[in-house]
Design brief:
Layout lengths: L17 E7 L2 E8 L8 E4 L10 H6 L6 E4 L16 H14 L5 E6 L1 H12 L4 E7 L12 H9 L1 H4 L15 H8 L8 H12 L14 E6 L7 H10 L3 E6 L5 H4 L1 H13 L11 E4 L9
Parallel strand pairs: 3-4, 3-5, 5-6, 6-7, 7-8, 8-9
Antiparallel strand pairs: 1-2, 2-4
Helix pairs in contact: 2-3
């Protein structure tokens, strides 16, 4: 039976988020739903590695208040307990589809950031009927991607901060952009999961790549990237844009966590993309916009 969340009428300010613990296919999940107007397709957010759902609060606050916004902690992260065993993306995508059903939604727009962007790509392929539109933020194609600079890769390998989920968000220089704001924003109510859950996430993406199937993604897709991302260089966004048929590229001033630190830049472009009326033939025109072109809009 679908879990009931109150959905208020559309107004100038969004309703407060409703937090629940829901058991889906035997897995308890920490879930938050911000009710919107309740008339459209909800937005399902998939977070980055080691990050709890609270990290994205600044972005949610900047989104169109009419949107229903669903956030959840991946098993082993934040408020969701460890799964019984390690998982692959296909299993996680099935869990996400069942979560939508439990909440009473037949489909959703899906946004993934960083590690979550890889999950979102996989979801769009294997659960295509449950995904209307796709938003990929600060992400890449998995094991086969344009790597970070050698100096950044060396720090990632040698720094205990990168391998310890409790310290990961205390390393703002990994992220670029408004590095001085990362620490303050990422620890507002954020909860850290277990080290094992963190390594489950690493293992899930270790041998995964989306390169072979990106041309098969048929959903209208918005690719969002900062121009100062040390972890996932902008070239990765341009590569995905070249391979996903119905994609647009939006570049903003910011780093890897720009969705949070520069939410005022990213959220309007994403809200506009999600609200846009679909063309008669079902495909959005390809586009490439950036701050350099003087446009804050996508497409």
């Amino acid at each position: 039976m679908p879990v009931s969340f109150h959905r208020g009428a559309a107004n100038s300010s969004a309703a407060p988020p409703v937090m629940r613990r829901i058991v889906v296919a035997g897995q308890p999940l920490h879930v938050t739903v911000r009710p919107g107007a309740g008339a459209g397709v909800p937005l399902l957010l998939v977070n980055g590695i080691g990050a709890s759902l609270e990290l994205l609060q600044p972005f949610v606050d900047e989104l169109d208040p009419a949107l229903d916004v669903i956030r959840f902690d991946v098993p082993g992260v934040g408020g969701s307990p460890l799964p019984a065993r390690p998982y692959r993306f296909s299993g996680l995508c099935r869990l996400m589809a069942r979560l939508l059903s439990a909440l009473g939604y037949s489909r959703a727009d899906v946004l993934g950031i960083s590690w979550g962007g890889a999950v979102a790509q996989h979801f769009a392929l294997v659960q295509s009927g449950r995904c209307r539109r796709l938003v990929l933020v600060s992400t890449a194609t998995g094991g086969l991607m344009v790597p970070a600079r050698p100096s950044v890769l060396a720090r990632m390998v040698t720094s205990p901060q990168y391998w310890d989920p409790a310290q990961l968000l205390d390393a703002p220089d990994f992220y670029g952009g408004s590095a001085d704001r990362v620490g303050a924003l990422t620890h507002i109510g954020s909860r850290v999961g277990s080290t094992r859950g963190y390594f489950y996430q690493l293992a899930a993406v270790a041998c995964w790549t989306s390169l072979p199937f990106l041309p098969l993604i048929r959903q209208p897709t918005l690719i969002v990237s900062g121009d100062d991302d040390p972890l996932i260089p902008l070239a990765n966004a341009r590569l995905m844009h070249s391979l996903i048929p119905h994609s647009r590229l939006h570049v903003f001033h910011g780093g890897h966590l720009g969705l949070v630190t520069e939410a005022h830049q990213a959220a309007p472009a994403i809200s506009q993309f999600l609200a846009a009326r679909a063309p008669v033939h079902g495909a959005f025109p390809r586009g490439d916009t950036s701050h350099a072109a003087g446009s804050g809009q996508a497409g």
